[in-house]
Amino acid sequence: MNDLRITFCQQYIVWGDPEANRRHVEEEMRSIPHDTDLFVVPETFTTGFGQHMAALAEPEEGPTLQWARRMAAEHGLLFVGTWTVRDGDRCYNRLHWVYPDGTYGYYDKAHTFRVSGEADQIGRGTQRAVFEYKGWRIKPAVCYDLRFPKWLRNGKRETGNGELEYDLLIICANWPGSRHEAWTTLLKARAIENLCYVVGCNRIGTDQEGILYTGDSVAVDYKGLIIAIGDGEQSISATLHRDTLATFREHWPFYLDFD
After folding, report:
1. Fewest CB atoms less than 10 Å from the CB: which of 65, 168, 195, 244?
2. Is the pTM of this model over 0.90?
3. Which helix (H) or strand (E) holds 92?
4. Total domains, the chain
5. Which residues are catalytic?
């Protein structure tokens, strides 16, 4: 199975301005490595995270999805990011993965952050998800989901050969700098306990409500070791090696004793 080249954008988000944020990310994508397979942006990358999210929610087939389709096609990669979507009478913090051919899937954030009031305006998702790209099985999650290990637990696939459900966990987040130690610790823990790579893509800068985000976007390997980390407003790239992951799982098959 091929290695996977992933680039994740430690973005400064312009508060409540989807057009400006899409334009900024589009400019950023012009300078990413040409061999990038998968590009990730933070949670609610078009608006920032706050009480305005529901008011700025888009229809599912709205401008950000159409823009993401264009970016995926132009760069020949998988685009991953969240923005708020109105679906029926509810709004969701919806993570999308958009393929180069324009097809896509989505996962709705399951654990809405009640402390900030997100739970009062955003509906909770109820379905776990795993999707595939270039032979990799990838699990999406959003910010506060990271604190719930049971929800993110890697299980054995129903194939009879002992394979795990996913190889890479992606977390799109707006995680404040005041809790950066928890962010880094939990990312490492999820990698170790699930025998997988983890990529946490977080925003940077101070938002309109005065909350400071220090980024700390990071790629972590299955042993909990950091292989790439962000520093300031930038995109970070890392190559994930499928063969070494498979070898580690073979030598240390902890998953055979999962509860």
Report:
1. 244
2. yes
3. strand 90-98
4. 1
5. 43, 109, 143
